[in-house]
Amino acid sequence: MSEIAENLQYYFQFPIVRYALTVGLLVALCSSLLGVTLVLKRFSFIGDGLSHVAFGAMAVATITGITNQMIIILPLTVISAVLILRTGQNTKIKGDAAIAMISVGALAVGYMLINMFSKSANIAGDVCSTLFGSTSILTLKKQEVWLCIGLSAVVLCVFVLFYNKIFAVTFDENFSRATGINADTYNLIIAVITAVIIVLAMSLVGSLLISALIIFPAITSMRIFRSFRSVTICSAVISVICAGTGFFISLLYSTPVGATIVTANIVVFLIFSIISSFSGIKK
Amino acid sequence: MNKQIICKNATLGYEDGIVTENLDFTVNSGDYLCIFGENGSGKSTLIKALLGLKPQVSGEIKWCDGFSAKEIGYLPQQTPIQRDFPASVMEIVLSGCLAKCGLRPFYNKAEKELAENTMKQLHIENLAGRCYRELSGGQQQRVLLARALCATRKMLLLDEPVTGLDPKAQAEFYELISKLNHDGITIIMVSHDLNAALKYASHILHIGKKQLFFGTKENYLTSKTGLDFIETEGGVIQ
User: Fold this and answer.
1) How many CB pairs below 8 A link A and B?
2) pLDDT tens digits, residue range A65-109?
3) Which of B44, B63, B85 to mutate to test the interface with A (most CBs of A within 10 A)?
4) Residue A231 is nearest to which of B70, B86, B98, comparing CB atoms?
5) CA distance A275 to chain B (A)
6) B39 sits in which H/E element
7) What is the CATH number of domain A14-282?
8) CATH 3.40.50.300 domain locations along chain B
9) ipTM of this predicted structure
10) Nearest to B120 by CA among B78, B150, B82, B95
11) Which CATH number is associated with domain B1-67+154-238?
């Protein structure tokens, strides 16, 4: 045990590790909060779709050779989030098909662009780390960490300030509209902050695993908790604990960060499922 | 009697077609109006128009005397999302107060008291901490009714509120609505349930591709539309 502690202490001497942990916990917190709403609104796949878009955007950013890739990735993903939401309301192409089109399209175009224009010698490695976030979290620069902290703070503030409205719009959009709440605006806010979270999470878990961070904590806490507030709080706690645990395990055993965090989430999900089925029998 | 809604020769529809036309009716405060119509006759479009969510194609819909579309307490049909939604009764009832909050992010004391008193009025105060999805159908409807009453005390618009309830819960729900109507709340109910409508309603609006009938219940019972409908539905004249 003391060996593990010493080991961790050794790692935490490096600022890179501290940065990575900070970013990881913040991203986990933000994504879990919004996850509850996305899962309940049947928007789980928006997360998945947008993460593919973010991959495409990253490809574009890579070939332009800009150092701060966020400048390209963030606006592109936010615009796609708005588009996906709009097409979701359009009757011509149904929501899920629209999301699938945009996401797979972005993935394909992104991969093609990287292959055609990248000057890097290790294209497969680049693509893999974008998709699974294998090592990129340990290469964060100080500037990116501050950006992440800033954006997370914005997301948290928006969520807390609009918590009651988000609940109302999620539970019953028609009723909210009827009482004069501008549901479209709140849907837009939800979509935009989802896009921001996904861009942030890309450096942590990579674009393929982001939906796990959004969906798992929410589904897990819904197994046991029964009010919106308790589900939201529990899912935030689960997500932060899993991100922390996954991060430490990946440091100690050199496993990929993103995959380890997601695996931790799966384990907690299974535990909660078992608890809920046992308590269900008692009833 | 104050007029609350006046609908003059209104035509409702979408860009690609008219759903229903020639709508001409008035809702006074204290009325109990039942809206009949077959599927596809434009009932849901009419609901949206009355709520001010979808403007009419032509004609006029007016909310009068300081009454506005936002002051209609709406009881929508249940959506599939709600059936497995983790929310406590208190959270749902409170969300009826949301329009009163405006830009303020949280509920204040008065709104919490309003929610509690409304739950007492509907005898669901003991359910406050319970999870919505675990309640019976009748209890769920009362919760949604409490939410609508938190939003307004002037008018309720109910969209097929007893669908899926067992007969006892249906009867209880109708009695509750009737009591609220006696307390002075205007009721507009879209319904399939002819017998209940004939028992409780004061006015009937029957729509098809156009307006087939509007008037008091007594006149409806002697009109051709009314008699035909009663015959096909097998209703009992009370």
Assistant:
1) 86
2) 777 777 888 888 888 888 877 665 554 556 667 778 888 888 898
3) B85
4) B86
5) 17
6) none
7) 1.10.3470.10
8) 1-67+154-238
9) 0.85
10) B150
11) 3.40.50.300
